[in-house]
Amino acid sequence: MKTLAFRLGWRLLFYPCLVYTVFSFIFFWMYAHPRRYTGAYTPQDFGLKPEPVKLMTADGVQLDAWFIPNKASRQAVIVCHGYPMDKSDVLGLTVFLARHFNVLYFDFRATGRSGGFFSTGGAKETRDIEAAARFLETRGLKDRIGAFGFSMGAAAVLLSADPAIKARVLDAPYADLGVELDYIFSPWGIWRKPLLALMKAWTFVFTGVNVDQVSPRRSAAALKTPLLLIHGDADKQVPLANSERIKAAVPAAELWVVKGARHGENWYRAGYEYERRTTAFFKKHL
Q: CB of 35 within 8 A of CB of 49?
């Protein structure tokens, strides 16, 4: 009887753990190797003439990019899209920047038409931003480079300490990757803790990234350059509390709360004021 009870108990423990481990790997894979989206919009749809560009990161990932030159400006802005989309996804809400600045759009690694296999939530995407900055420097735009980021792109902009970037505009960034994942999986209740622990383990094994160390909030506190945070108070995907925590870590940062805006709606809600504030911020600090 004892032997039978032991066998039954062992199976009741082992098989659920095995199933949970498999589920955690599936979720890890879905997030770290997302389906690629390639949007239909191009700069030509807005009357612009981009230069197709290929960027190479320090770790050997080739990135697909558009460079939109502005002969009347010596200032440049790098535009960083959100997860898991591509550069086309943020084109409509940022195309106004091309009226005032040289603009560089690119697809992060593992998204759009860029190379790379794993997305890391902003951790290794900092290398992509650095590659973009190096390209702009070859075009004679050194020391007058700003960066705009949306969602994960905003987090990556904060994580990047590249000295070439002199000003940052962040639309709906997350403050800490571990906390954001805990929020995303909150419907799992107490079961999210072991699931996330396993997902973090898979992430470290396959990408070398410690999720709990990916903190735009802490990185922002070490930056010496101006920051403009833009966040909607109706954002349920990346709640306003994220920008408020970043603001608390960087009291000098500007925080503009857009009333009634959900994730990705700040430009749609604020319209011209969004364009005016963003343009004025970059003109002042670049």
A: no
* Residue 182 belongs to a domain: no
* Residue 17 pLDDT: 73
Same domain, 22 and 149: no
Q: Is residue 241 part of a domain?
A: yes
132 and 48 in one domain? yes
Quote the pTM value. 0.93
Would you tell me how many other CB atoms lie within 10 Å of the CB of residue 110? 22
| Residues β-bridged to residue 55 | 63
Same domain membership, residue 72 and residue 17: no
- Three-state secondary structure readout of 192-226: HHHHHHHHHHHHHHHHCCCHHHCCHHHHHHHCCCC
What is the number of structural domains in the chain? 2
Average pLDDT value for residue range 129-148: 96
Contact yes or no for 74/144 (Cβ under 8 A): yes
